[in-house]
Amino acid sequence: MIRLLSNYLYSCNYAVIDMKLTLIHPAHMDYRKDLFEKLNQEYDVTFVFTKQGRGQKNVFEEQERIPENWNYSVIKTNTIFLGKDVGMYIQLIQELFNDKSDIIITSTSWHLCWLISKIKNKKFILMTEFWHWNNSSFYRKIINLSIRMIAKRSDAIFAMGTKSYSAYSSMDVSSDKLFVHPQCAVDYSNNPVKNLKFDIELDNKIIFLFIGRLVESKGVDVLLRAFSKLEQEDSDVVLIVGGDGHSKTKLEVLSRQLGIKNIQFTGRIEKKDISSYYSMCDVFVLPSIFINESYEPWGLVVNEAMAFGKAIIASSAVGSAYDLISPNQNGYIVRENSSNDLYSAMKQISHDKQRLLEMGNKSRIIFDNKNNFESFFLKLNECIEFVANSSAKKRSN
């Protein structure tokens, strides 16, 4: 009996070590650096990057250089048809059909990766942060039905956040193949900080900060309306809007129309300067909204701001809010697309320095507890082991 148990455990461990992985991801980012390096050390893994060298929705993003010792491929294409990067899909199909791995892990192009994994008889792990699906059109209803089908037929789901975990659990996905861990971000709080120069006076002001792409789903127009109302009652508040995107000009016009005085649009913020912005603010705000199929599945800027011990206000369309914000303790979760609710939350903590300090301290405690790359890897590793061991058991039967 002991020998049989020993042989079984050995076979399970051998399955984990010997399993070849292919991980499909948009790009190599600093917040994936630790996770991917640990995977590369533990497994025979091939990385496939579908958007390396390109940003989300054509907005520039600083990406990491891919280590030369990794086994990887980068898909490069500019073949656009009806707004879709068909060239990328064609090249990805070729990559997957030539792939020699046992397990495919993907956080992008789910449908394509799942379909080919089944054709090639490979195990499939869905690595996802998504949790909200819009049923506003017949097309979206069909897509959402297919998502449910893929979820139930995946070998495991690694949900990055409790909202994502709950979404797949509600689809009657078997609980034993559901794994969850909060998204992790880089801690910039030890980086050098410099004094930033602005066109407006900042001394003795309460500074609200937004950092992100300036696109409709970020809800910055909602923030401008909320801040406009707050500024009319209190001239000692300042709003810093950091980032770039196709909505920037439109938002600057709206700011002038609302008569906002204490506001600064910084444009794109480089990584080397980001710690300076987080350090200077009192409250970080992420007012994202649901618009068509767009929203904020996670929002790593919330993690980043919490590393600096800042109070947080986020909307109900922000996935990280449900893992990282303890209401009334380190911030507030407000109803998405409601400038009145956002205004009320901003007003509650403006000029209460003691409360801001207490909330900021609580944010750092939550960050230290949940933003843990080691436990992030261990949970993903547990997910991979589950799939590898279930495959070994199936082969032994």
TrEMBL record:
Keywords: Transferase
TM spans (from-to): none
SUPFAM superfamilies linked to this entry: UDP-Glycosyltransferase/glycogen phosphorylase
Pfam families tied to this protein: Glycos_transf_1 (PF00534)
Transferase is among the record's keywords: yes
Glycosyl transferase family domain segment(s): 199-364
Taxonomy, superkingdom: Archaea
Cross-referenced InterPro entries: Glyco_trans_1 (IPR001296)
Keyword Transferase on entry: yes
UniProt-recorded name of the protein: Glycosyltransferase
Source species: Methanolobus tindarius DSM 2278
